[in-house]
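Fold this sequence, please.
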Amino acid sequence: MRKFMDDDFLLHSDVAKRLYHDIAAKMPIIDYHCHIDPKEIYEDVQFDNITQVWLGGDHYKWRQMRSNGIDERYITGDASDREKFQKWAETLEKAIGNPLYHWSHLELKRYFGYEGHLCGETAQEVWDLCNQRLQEKDLSVRGIIRQSNVEVICTTDDPIDDLRWHHMLAEDDSFDVKVLPAWRPDKAMNIDKNDYVDYLRKLEAVSQIKLDSFKSLMQALRLRMDHFEKHGCKVSDHGLDYVCFVEASEEEIESIFQKRLMGEELSLNEISAYKTAFMCALAKEYHRRGWVMQLHYGAARNLNQKMFEKLGPDTGYDAISTYAPSSQLASYLNALAYDNCLPKTILYSLNPNDNAMIGSLIGCFQDGSAAGKIQQGSAWWFNDHKTGMTEQMTSLANLGLLGNFIGMLTDSRSFLSYTRHEYFRRILCDLVGTWVENGEYPDDEKALEKIIKGICYENCKHYFNF
């Protein structure tokens, strides 16, 4: 029986071990999509205890605690940090087969040197060890980033953000990790939300453009994109229910916009037409600027209304949606390609049943402007576990060119989540190693090194032009 999480964790062949230890483990990290706060990086925050860095805002953990029957007081309530940590430890010991079990113990090993396993009985010793280590300078926010071998971080930022922390970080010669903004204009698109007009007023204030038409909205967004571009932005991100495509004339889009400004109710078709026009207009702008467009879709959000009213969004009450018409996604990409303005695009579906659809669809819109111009994104959210990652990469290999894949991202709010790249890289090397061991790919050291380096780091660096 193998030791729990030894040096060869998840690696089941000699080839896999060689690929990981000699190649993958040494590669820098480009975290091109995350939700961490640039202010905390600039201020080089030192966390008081492990609960603050582990459980604050981590809805992955919150869901598991609720599944364990833990009262909300110990999750998002007023219980002490020590009490919350105890409840998490008691939950984690039951999470066999869950990626949180692996992620948590990888973090304990890599950042705190803990070789045991966390459970209710060991919670106190882990609490004491972690809290002592967190007071040392190498486990400040910047210390964690440095020792994780991170080269680039792309945060997630709204068009109205002044990006002051990005500017201050860029001016700070003592920190050489690039912290770049990523453009997330969902609030400017979501015409169906109750607070849409209120958001327009905020955008109006920062852009100093009166937003009285769809045309003026696009003008304001282009101005804000100029601001983002000055701060090194090279990537956009969109959180969508699904990628819709309903064509309408410019006059019809302006009419829809005016109706919303006057508080009139819009039909589903009008909402879809408006979002289509919005997404087409921005995609053309991304293409002009050379930005990458990320499309995250397939989440059914805020399903527990009572808890949404109490806690708000991103608190653990989302699930996988099964509605994402591939025909509309294809029509959207086709319209952009037809006009020669399809940007580099990464598609993420929360529904793993979409793997084959995406794998086949992206092949219809590749061209000579970039290797892997249209990408299937890494296994996302409910899929970023061993099975989900293996299935996503296997499907991509079956239907496309896995060697052009841009690899992993954290998509996290925690500074300790860089071990997710290690987790991914081990799974990648084990998958490729299995194919080699089975005689499905030659044991060609040079070719394998190029593939592993590419997926772990080099493809991403070239794709985004970092």
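The chain has two domains: 14-44+149-464, 46-139. The two ends are 44 Å apart (CA to CA).
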